[in-house]
Amino acid sequence: MSNIYIQEPPTNGKILLKTSVGDIDVELWSKEAPKACRNFVQLCLEGYYDGTIFHRVVKGFIVQGGDPTGTGTGGESIYGEPFKDEIHSRLRFNRRGLVAMANAGKDDNASQFFFTLAPTPDLQNKHTIFGKVTGETVFNMIKLEDTLVDQDDRPLYPPKIIGTEVLNNPFPDIVPRVVKKKGQDEKPTKKPKVAGVKNYKLLSFGEEAEEDEEEVAEVSRKFSGKSKSTHDLLSDPKLSALPAVLEGDVDLSRHSSSDDDSDQARERMDMIKKKLGRHKTKEVPKVQKDTTGEDEEEEYDFGKERREELKRKAEELKKEYKSLKRDLQTKRKESERETVKEKTPPKERDIDRFTQTKSEYNEELEAYKTKKQQIPKKGASREAMTLSLLERFRNKLTSVKQQVG
């Protein structure tokens, strides 16, 4: 495995993908695949992948994403059209954790990309490899394989790319484009209101209505900003200038009625407080539901169904384990019974085997002793014996040479 990493060229550039299963670090081969890397970096800077899903998961093969429509047929490149493949001899589909461009054919690259989950030699020279997943974030990438999928390899609860962050930009000349999102159009300008003009000529009594309107306008001009009473407007001698109620009487009446009104005021205040309390208790949970609606849906999507599925699988595994354990116990008991029956050999066989081995040992020991006695002890006799053996060996060699020659 180390040889594979040595053969790969050095990387230049790094991007962090924040996904629903955890962060994924992607290092780029910007020198070997400059077009694909520039396209990927600029789309990340523009937030093109934010909120997109991984729409295809083939277990033991690839995980594909990068389509804003989520169908697998969308996506655009920064060049305005599909760009060419960039095949490099040192970049090969020989391990997991590689990042490559997805396409529908030759030279048809846009915005979609995929991660490899295993060696995929069938994709060699068909797709552009432009990056690799590094560090411990490889385990987060492997989590993408655990999602439940249907018969078309489409996830039932697809994981998302929450956001992207360019940690090391290999192309400092990139300027992100300003892309207007839906609903951010220019606000419509308000039309100025035109004051209506009354046309009295259309009415049969238009002249009278126009005269009345003029009189009302003159009166309103005179008394605008002034509050007048009947004493000011009319010159009637019957009207007196004295106030109808004196200030002292008003104070006395207030004090006398204050005791009676205080109880009623308290009752009203209590009723108002109760009503306000009811409204508050009803309104607070609505606000909480509105604010936490999205989080609850996300938990349902990514947590609840998966937990239920895992629980169901765990129960099935427990049942299988119990059944296997019972079978093993029964087989073990049967084998023990059979071995007990078979372990009753006659004693004579054991005695014969022992005597046979003992006799063989004694024979070997006797042969060793006889050969040892034939060898002379150290001295002239032993030297003569070695010389005779050497002479015999020489004669043998000469005879062999004569036969060959």
Describe the overall structure.
InterPro entries: Cyclophilin-like_dom_sf, Cyclophilin-type_PPIase_CS, Cyclophilin-type_PPIase_dom, Cyclophilin_A-like. Belongs to the cyclophilin-type PPIase family. It is found in: Nucleus. GO terms for molecular function: peptidyl-prolyl cis-trans isomerase activity. There is one protein chain. This protein is α+β, with helices and mostly antiparallel strands and about 400 residues long. Among the domains are: about 1-170, Beta Barrel (Cyclophilin); about 305-340; about 355-395. About 50% of the residues lie in helices and about 10% in strands. The protein has helices spanning about 1-5, 35-45, 140-145, 205-220, 230-235, 245-340, 345-375, 380-405; strands at about 15-20, 20-30, 55-60, 60-65, 100-105, 110-115, 130-135, 160-170. Strand 3 and strand 4 form a beta hairpin. The longest helix has about 100 residues, at about 245-340. It is elongated.
CATH architecture of the domain at 2-168: Beta Barrel
Shape: elongated
Which sequence of SSEs, written as H and E, runs from N to C? Answer: HEEHEEEEEHEHHHHH
The top-level CATH class of the domain at 2-168 is Mainly Beta
CATH topology of the domain at 2-168: Cyclophilin
Compute the number of helices: 8
Structural class: alpha+beta
Query: Beta-strand level of the residues, as a percent range?
Result: 5-15%
Q: What is the makeup of the main sheet?
A: 8 strands, antiparallel
The largest sheet has its strands arranged as: 3-4-6-5-7-2-1-8
Query: Helical proportion?
Result: 40-55%
Rg over C-alpha atoms, rounded to the nearest angstrom: 51 Å
The overall pLDDT average reads: 80
Runs with pLDDT <50, length 5+? 280-294, 296-300
Distance between the termini: 58 Å
CATH homologous superfamily annotation of the domain at 2-168? Cyclophilin-like
Number of strands: 8
